[in-house]
Write a structure and sequence with these properties.
Elements (H helix, E strand, L loop, with lengths): L1 H11 L3 H34 L5 H11 L4 H12 L14 H37 L4 H11 L4 H13 L3 H7 L9 H11 L2 H33 L1
């Protein structure tokens, strides 16, 4: 299997082209997850702790948004950032920033929906205590988010998995430009179509290794927190 051996050589020798793609993909995905967490966690917590008309419809809508078609989001962001679009003057189309925007839109509903469920379950457990203490709504949110911080890691991991595996949206808004907007997933798709299997396989190995490492780190942190709490 010469392709596999060549792919391993690319990874083990630190091929500059391969790791430039990996570096950009990580920056884009982690930036998107961070922005999505800053939006999604407070949004999910606010819905979990609020009572308003249409709340059930909002929850259904939020859950439905978890399945947003990436290519549709890519098209919407493309139209918004294109020269004739409302945000065209920003000049962000076919840049890493455009890719971050698209991934943030895709990841935010996932984190928000999972955070809402986590916070709502915790609220049922502590509602009487927090109500008796007359804790203000904003303080309730911060208290429950902090208490659920390790459980919320699952939501962040789900968001990172969606961002790291994304292809359609980032190709549309990033253009898959070599050395500028080419990520691991878009490069795998392109190099496979070109028949350059060593690079495609090498990127696939790195992507799998990153996902396993991130999940392993999250698991270790949660276990350590449980031991300290126990």
């Amino acid at each position: 299997m010469p392709e596999n051996l060549s792919a391993l050589d690319l990874v083990l020798t630190g091929d500059p082209a391969l790791f430039a793609i990996v570096r950009l993909a990580l920056v884009v995905s982690l930036s998107a997850v961070l922005l999505a967490a800053l939006i999604g966690v407070p949004l999910g917590a606010a819905i979990a702790l609020s009572s308003f008309r249409g709340r059930d419809a909002a929850i259904v809508f939020l859950n439905a948004m978890m399945g947003l078609p990436p290519v549709v989001i890519g098209l919407i962001v493309y139209l918004a950032l294109s020269r004739s679009g409302p945000l065209g003057e920003w000049g962000l189309l076919f840049t890493p920033q455009a890719m971050v925007i698209a991934q943030t839109i895709l990841v935010t509903p996932i984190i928000a929906a999972l955070a809402r469920q986590t916070i709502e379950d915790l609220w049922l457990e502590y509602r009487d205590e927090l109500t008796a203490m007359d804790v203000r709504p904003l303080r309730r949110i911060t208290t429950l988010v902090w208490d659920a911080r390790f459980s919320l890691i699952t939501a962040l991991l789900a968001g990172f998995g969606r961002a790291a595996a994304e292809v359609g949206a980032v190709i549309i808004v990033g253009g898959n430009i070599d050395g500028f907007t080419r990520t691991m997933t878009t490069a795998i798709a392109l190099e496979t179509s070109k028949g350059n299997l060593p690079l495609a396989i090498g990127l696939g190995l790195v992507l799998i290794a990153i996902v396993l490492a991130v999940n392993g780190l999250a698991w270790a942190l949660r276990r350590a927190a449980e031991r300290l709490a126990g």
